[in-house]
Amino acid sequence: MSGSGTTIDVCNEEKRQVYGFDLVSRRSDIKQADARKLPLPDNFADLVFIDSPYSDNIRYSDHPDCIGKISCEEHRFFEEVEKVAIEAKRILKPNGVIAWLIGDQAKKKIFTPVGIRLYLILEKHFR
Q1: pLDDT computed for residue 70 by the predictor
Q2: Distance between CA 71 and CA 99 in Å, rounded?
Q3: How far, in Å, CA of 59 to CA of 11, rounded?
Q4: In the chain, what are the domains?
C-alpha cells in the first residue's frame, strides 16, 4: 500500500533501506503485491508503514481485490484490513514497529470511526 510513493522517496533521501508494495504499482520502485500476502519472509522488517485506503472515498484502482473499493460502513472492509494487520505482524521482527496512517469517515451525516476500529484490530494482534 505504497500509493504514490512519497514515503519511499523520504526513506531514500534519508538513506534507509525501503521496500514498497502496492496492489497496482505505478512506479518501478514499487513492486506489485497484495498487502494481505507480501513476498517477504517472516520477521523481516524493523518498521512497517501502511497508508491504506480509508474506505471507498477515493478511486484507488479498478483491481478487483482493492480494499479501497469496499465501504468502511461494511464489516467486510475491516475483515480485509485485519488481514493486512496480520500480514504486517508476520513480517515484523520481534519488537518491530507498525505505523498506520488512517482517517475516519463522515459521509452523508454518517460518521464511521475507522481509526478506532483499526486500533481495536491492532490491539488484538499486537499485544
Answers
A1: 87
A2: 22
A3: 26
A4: 6-125 (3.40.50.150)
Whole-angstrom distance, CA of residue 24 vs CA of residue 7? 16
Q: Which residue has the cell 510513493?
A: 5
d(CA 38, CA 61): 19
| pTM of the full structure | 0.90
Contact 126, 78 (CB under 8 A): no
Residue 94: strand, helix, or coil = strand
Strand partners, 31: 21
pLDDT digits (tens, 9 = 90+) for 42-97: 999 999 999 887 777 777 777 788 888 888 899 999 999 999 999 999 999 999 99
